[in-house]
Design brief:
By secondary structure, the chain is an alpha/beta fold. It has five helices and five strands; from the N terminus they run βββαβαβααα. The longest helix is centred in the middle third of the chain and has 20 residues.
Length: 164
């Protein structure tokens, strides 16, 4: 059984989803949301995310983590904090000797739904279906993270974004 932890990066809400792929398909092992308080100093918020991610990696021993990249053209004010979270996620993985895959939102949508411009609702419904879950996954950040994990598991050689 292959295990991947997917992340939907965010400073206030960093969704995660732990997905396994075995002979009978996909299964959700865990999902949730790492929340940080805006009143907490910025470095302490990053530390909280780092600590939680390190615990997840230790607990689930994934073969890789997959991280959904940021939409650079949306809210540019949120891009820097999200990029910092992505860096923290990568650091936690590398320190635990876990492969890191960074996927575009379009590649996650395409892998999960077959359509690169699928709506958030379509991704959530298809993720729920692929995981055989009776109820929709909440919060939405966790659903996105599960989709990211599924996308990484669907491809043998998942191409990661190259930031060079």
């Amino acid at each position: 059984m292959k295990v991947v932890i997917g992340f939907d990066s965010g400073l206030a809400n960093c969704g995660y989803g732990v997905v396994a792929r075995g002979g009978s398909g996909f299964s959700c092992l865990a999902h949730g949301n790492i929340q940080t308080d805006a009143k907490t100093p910025h470095p302490d918020r990053l530390l909280k995310i780092y600590q939680h991610v390190t615990e997840l990696i230790t607990e689930w021993n994934p073969s890789k983590i997959s991280i959904e990249s940021v939409y650079w053209n949306r809210n540019q004010k949120s891009c820097l904090p999200i990029a910092e979270v992505i860096g923290v996620l990568q650091l936690a993985a590398v320190q635990k000797d876990v492969e890191v895959v960074i996927l575009t939102p379009q590649s996650v949508k395409s892998a999960v739904t077959g359509v690169s411009n699928a709506s958030k609702t379509q991704v959530m419904k298809m993720t729920q279906k692929l995981l055989g879950m009776k109820k929709p996954v909440t919060p939405s950040h966790a659903a996105d993270a599960l989709g990211c994990a599924i996308a990484a598991l669907l491809s043998r050689n998942t191409p990661s974004l190259d930031y060079k």
